[in-house]
UniProtKB/TrEMBL annotation:
It comes from Mariprofundus ferrinatatus. The keyword Cytoplasm applies. Keywords: Cytoplasm, Methyltransferase, S-adenosyl-L-methionine, Transferase. GO terms for molecular function: protein-L-isoaspartate (D-aspartate) O-methyltransferase activity. Catalyzes the methyl esterification of L-isoaspartyl residues in peptides and proteins that result from spontaneous decomposition of normal L-aspartyl and L-asparaginyl residues. It plays a role in the repair and/or degradation of damaged proteins. Its main location: cytoplasm. It is found in: Cytoplasm. It catalyses: [protein]-L-isoaspartate + S-adenosyl-L-methionine = [protein]-L-isoaspartate alpha-methyl ester + S-adenosyl-L-homocysteine. This is Protein-L-isoaspartate O-methyltransferase. One of its GO terms (biological process) is protein repair. Pfam families: PCMT (PF01135). GO terms for cellular component: cytoplasm. Belongs to the methyltransferase superfamily. L-isoaspartyl/D-aspartyl protein methyltransferase family.
Length: 221
């Protein structure tokens, strides 16, 4: 193996997609291609690089986590993106899910409430050259009115939906979130119809909590 291939973590990444993602039933070819390409090791703390492709979530500072690779793929597949969409993400974290989405839709708008994480995501996404991503540091429960309506909204922290999200969604658009409390969540996908909402429940899961307001400094480790 060349030095470049070793440093780019090509093999662990391909293995991650085969063993953790395809093996568990993710079949959307575009999602698989994005997961094979985005360099997850560039989004984690340098001390955790050797664990970047493991079947687990990892700490990213400020008490938050980068989601397990399978969960990123699962949620992305549920959005059924075709390429023309404008997607709002609540909970940028380190920006890994943002990077995956950015390869599958026209533009991603992503909101993070913890300032140091927002800044790190900005650096991570610049390093990986994602031009179709817009980030802001704010309370994502308010959505991002300026660019609404969105084709899809994905929430990567667990809690209950804000009414503003459905309002900021196009008719036919999907809102995907881990719903519930105290670390016991279930993925729910709500499709906004001309009259009413279609609701579908999927995997049980555990996410960090959806919180209110903005945090400007590292008050928690
Ligand atoms: N998609 C991220 C997952 C990060 S964990 C990744 O791939 O790394 C969820 C993130 O949601 C955390 O960074 C947390 O700070 C953020 N979050 C929680 N509540 C929020 C809110 N109301 N608005 C914006 N971000 C929020």
């Amino acid at each position: 193996m060349s030095l470049h291939a070793a440093l780019s973590y090509e093999r662990p990444r391909q293995r991650m997609v085969g063993e953790q993602i395809q093996a568990r039933g993710i079949h959307d070819e575009r999602v698989l291609a994005a997961m094979r390409t985005v360099p997850r090791h560039l989004f984690v703390d340098p001390a955790l690089v050797s664990r970047a492709y493991q079947d687990a979530s990892l700490p990213i500072g400020s008490g938050q986590t980068i989601s397990q690779p399978y969960m990123v793929a699962r949620m992305t597949q549920l959005l059924e993106l075709q390429g023309h969409e404008r997607v709002l993400e609540i909970g940028t974290g380190c920006g890994y899910q943002t990077a995956v989405l950015s390869r599958l839709c026209r533009r991603v708008y992503s909101i993070e409430r913890i300032a140091p994480l927002h800044e790190r995501a900005r650096q991570n996404l610049r390093a990986a050259r994602h031009a179709n991503v817009m980030l802001k540091c704010a309370d994502g429960r308010l959505g991002w009115e300026e660019y609404a309506p969105y084709d899809a909204i994905i929430v990567t922290a667990g809690g209950f939906a804000s009414e503003l999200w459905l309002q900021q969604l196009k008719t036919g658009g999907m809102l995907l979130l881990p719903e519930g409390e105290n670390g016991a969540h279930r993925l729910v996908r709500r499709t906004k119809l001309a009259h009413g909402i279609n609701e579908e429940y999927f995997d049980a899961c555990t996410f960090v909590p959806l919180l209110e307001g903005v945090e400007s400094s590292l008050s928690r480790k």
